[in-house]
Amino acid sequence: MDNEFPNFAALKAAKVESIDYRIVVRRGARTGNAIVIAPHGGKIEPRTSLIAETIAGSDLDMYCFEGLMPESNRELHITSRNFDEESALELLRTKSTVVAIHGRQDRDDPSAVYMGGKDAALVSEIVARLQNAGFNTQEDGHPFPGIHDLNIVNRGLTGKGAQLEIPFSLRQRLGKEPELLQKFCMAVRKAIESFGARSGSILS
After folding, report:
1. Cα–Cα dist 12/174, whole Å
2. For position 23, which CATH number holds?
């Protein structure tokens, strides 16, 4: 994206916290080794914060960087490989299961969730759960592989995570249909729990 900030320091120098943007860190009641993040939340990629919060529930840790401006919130977008806000990095250093929620434009595919990230096992678990719940996913052949080492989703303890790029039309539906939101988010949540149970790394 053109004219986006190269890192968080540049954004912080140009924008005012609590007016232009905010950082939301919510520690879960069963704080363990999993976290759900929305680095382009609020009005930057609409409804990604809602989805992250719903997946996390009251017991998983959650991090959102949110745009608050009346308009032009896309200018607050820091690409995932340059996203270096310190409280996010500090929290991620303690987590072995990282799931990042993003929003993408529909283009010619308004339904498929494009899956990325370096944690192939976690991605596969999420794909299976989403498909079983009736959602479409695509793992390859899209422009969001999420495999760069510096991508925020890959900066947890294991150096790998799972990234969901959710199309605009589906995000609109999730925002308007509470039952659909619950179905989607519970599928991802069950994937996180199942993955963590197998790896022995969740919800300590």
Report:
1. 31
2. 3.40.630.100
pLDDT in tens, 51-72: 999 999 999 999 999 999 999 9
In a domain, 168, yes or no: yes
CA dist., res. 198 & res. 42, Å (int): 33
How many residues in total does the chain contain? 204
Question: Residue 80's closest CA among 112, 48, 121?
Answer: 48
Handedness of CA 81, 85, 89, 91 (dihedral sign): negative
CA distance 8 to 14: 10
Task: Please calculate the CA angle 93-43-82 and round it to the nearest 5 degrees.
Answer: 40
Q: Is the residue at 167 inside a domain?
A: yes
**3 within domain boundaries:** no
**Straight-line distance from the first to the last Cα atom of the chain, in angstroms, rounded to the nearest whole number:** 39
Closest by CA position to 36, among listed 23, 18, 19, 54? 54
As given in the structure block, the two tokens for residue 139 are 């793992």
- Angstrom distance (rounded) from CA 83 to CA 147: 14
- Is 2 contained in some domain? no
How many distinct structural domains can be found in the chain? 1
143-158 core/surface letters (b: 16 or more CB in 10 A; e: else): ebbbeeeebbbbbbeb
Query: How many Å apart are CA 120 and CA 156, to the nearest integer?
Result: 15
pLDDT tens for residues 115-142? 999 999 999 999 999 999 999 999 999 9
Q: Which domain holds residue 80?
A: 8-196
pTM over 0.85: yes
